[in-house]
## 1
Amino acid sequence: MTVLHPEPAKERPGLVASLPISRWRDAHDFLQINTKPAPFQYLSPDGTTFIPTTQDPHESGSGRQFFSPAISPAPTGWYRPQQIGRFFVADEFGQKIWSFSVNPNGSLADPKLFAEEGEAGVAVDAHGNVYVAAGNIFVYDPTGKQIDLIEVPERPTSLVFGGKDRQTLFIAARSSLYAIRTKSKRQ
């Protein structure tokens, strides 16, 4: 096991960024907080992945707020530089989904409202369809048009695609884990 230490933020072209996919901001500053560049980053030992963070945790005893996807229960998503498209973040308080472009330093830019539903989890399939956990699972095509609704027996909290062909949607809920095979083509 390796202890990671934050280092000053810098551009890391070609590296995978681990970014929050949902935030609760009742101060009505969701866009401001999400587009503010983080001053520090954690770098994986193999140099392939980094996690932007707002503050050196060694300074957190001063009473300042500290948030890092690395040590927070907030769900994170992976942004790979070769992925085409935008990164989606749920505004839990505003109950909306926003899309962002991702800069090489892991900061988000160019926010665009994507959907009027949003809560805890967001996942994107191989065809660019966006799955949103908000009581059930709302499915949107890449343009933001709702194309499906997946009813879940209990409130979903997190979503991720997996399986050999990445077409199985895993749904973490309050007390259970569900899996559903998604459609194999673009909607």
## 2
Amino acid sequence: MADILHDFPIATDAHRVFEAISAPKGLDHWWTQTSSGSPREGAEYELRFGPGYDWRARVSRYVPDREFELEFTEAMDDWRGTRVNFELIPNGASTQLRFRHTGWPATSEHYRITCFCWAMYLRVMRRWLEHGEEVEYERRLDV
């Protein structure tokens, strides 16, 4: 199995980062086109990325202001069963984010593309939280 890992600081408090990674309104600012769900363990999220990419995930880990994890239940074949985990480590006025997308069946072409996409999406999230930058959905992988 293969995993995607990214660690980086965000110059804001853990509560704001947690809202960005767990609340549908937060996710829509940097990752999803639209989403819905309740940030609580066991809840189901609908994650929409455009035509043909309406996915579902279950909240498999929820520790307020510390950790949030989604397990994909309906998605492309190689995403199904994978887990996207965000661990937050407060560090004064900033937060260290430890990101993991685990459970990939292989290092396929789609895995390689997703490694790049996560880096770009996480950068959009960081810029939004630190500077208030808004990037329309269609341009998020181009900034």
## 3
Amino acid sequence: MLTKIKKIIKRLISPYDKFSFLSSGLIRNNAKILDVGCGNNSVIEIKHAIPNCHYTGLDVTDHNLNQESKLLMDKYITTDPKTFSVAIKSFDSEFDLVISAHNIEHCEKQEEVLVNMLGAVNSEGLIYISFPTKNSVNFPSRIGTLNYFDDITHKGHPPDFDNIIGILKKNNFKILYQNRSYRPLLGFLIGFLNEPFSRKKNSVLRGTWDYYGFQSIIHAKKI
């Protein structure tokens, strides 16, 4: 019961983030999922939302992955950054869902990576994409990344939101949800209350991203 309540609260606070998308009922319980850029123990959140999914994680290194994460993965692939896009291309219409949560801004060939991710989605399949908003270059610098350039592994400037939407439509994807600067109401209010502490600690706290609208988020379906 407690877990159920926690899930409901998380969806209320941020109704269109990755966890809420995974918990929305759009994705079948035995779905094949490709997590592109699977660091920070992402598999734990995904398996918590969809326990019986078949999970494939793809990354260029073991980035903040504990032993539990590696045991939860059904398949784990690491590849050289230069062949990262090629590795994605090898998955031809294989997955019910492709997740790219704060991955694309770390890639050298961003458009090529995006197109190859779209090619990995099967008919009627889904894709979830999130990345820093264009305006994040003007946000204050904080530990945990609030200004785009806080993260030295970010490439160039933030991905172009309109260009990504255009590529999705060109590749026969229907946009289910789009927000170029995501500010969910409850998350925004939590961030507003935490902002004095965030400034004082010079650190990203719960709700900080929602208060500033740090993320661009897109949900789309292949048609």
